[in-house]
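Render this sequence as a predicted structure.
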Amino acid sequence: MYTRKAFEKSEYLTKWDSIITSVEEENGNFLVIFESTIFFPTGGGQNCDTGTITSPEKGSSAQISDVNIRDGVIYHTLENVRGDFQPGDKVTMEIDWPNRFDNMQRHCGEHILSGAFYRLYGGMNKGFHMGKDFITIDIAFPHEDPYQQVTWEMAEAAEADANAVIQSDVPVTVDYFKTRSEAEKMPLRKALAFDEDISVVTVGDKEHPMDCVACCGTHPSTAGQVGLIKIYKIEPNKGMSRVFFEAGGRAYAKYRDQFNILYDLGNRLSAGYEDILSKYDKQVRRNQESRDRLHRLTQVLVSQKSSQILSDLSSVSECMLVYEEDLFTADDILDIGKIIEPSIKGLVALIATDTNTVFLFSGGEPACGKLVKEYASDFGGRGGGKANMARAVFPDKSGCKAFIAAIDPLICK
């Protein structure tokens, strides 16, 4: 049977001697149960500890890749390997400390930030998730509260308050209570969800805490060890505000990466930090002006090409006219098709050579879509369309030409 005595003794324990009580196989993995453990199981929004177990007597060791709790029993997963481990073996377990401390920083950071939203605005944390790339908390406000959603200004204030708590390096303590009535004497931020075996985490003084809430996760002994909290985004979620943030070493790493991007952007724009935005806005305006000018020029070319095709339709007797184009986009070609369609007697094919796409236009007969459906696949093409317009994309230029050569006799028969 699992006991918490080792884990409760100190969250800073990295090694612990224990005895294997059971080894079970499940889905190709081996699940080990110990008499006592320092491995934290997945739960309470936090990922589990990982690490190793070693048998000094047998000289064997194995990686613990997952730890979970079911019906009060903690199972340690030896992924795809059992080794020499048997019930009754004395082993030394060692946790992966960087992984543990990462979880401690992030989980305590969540407490501190949630406490800030609660103290400043009365916002209640209704949901918490420690994901791979960020942490989220869902903040809700009582109906009578003047606040409805977290604004960016509110988030900045809560972030500043949370980091002030970190800088003050107040103690983080854990108290254990056997009953709800004992635990409820603490100044809890959130109502209890358990009736017994309750652990309460307090950040700061217990009379006037920065945060105080029931929690079974791992936390550092002081707030200063969290290092940093940074909020990245806020979005509405089921009537609440979902706050995305990071804490600890991950917050620093993300800030560093984002600053490096800002630094590179400044170099590309030949701008200092203070005028990056103005330089960027100026570049955006220039790009928009260039796009507008390009659009006007393209419309002139579309008009000229349409006039050429209309002239050819009136003066040339071919059943199918074929044009290769390398300047026009698909939308440009479709604009040309709208202009020439009323004057087409046979078939007009425009080939966009940069994408190996054939556009077919007719007055409805021959049916363009039918031609694509029946013949394009013979040459590796795929596409579709209507009677008066269709398109087919081919893997190469030769496929385009082979398709045109195949349908030409059908049009002119």
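Summary. Residues 276-315 form the longest helix (40 residues). The radius of gyration is 34 Å.
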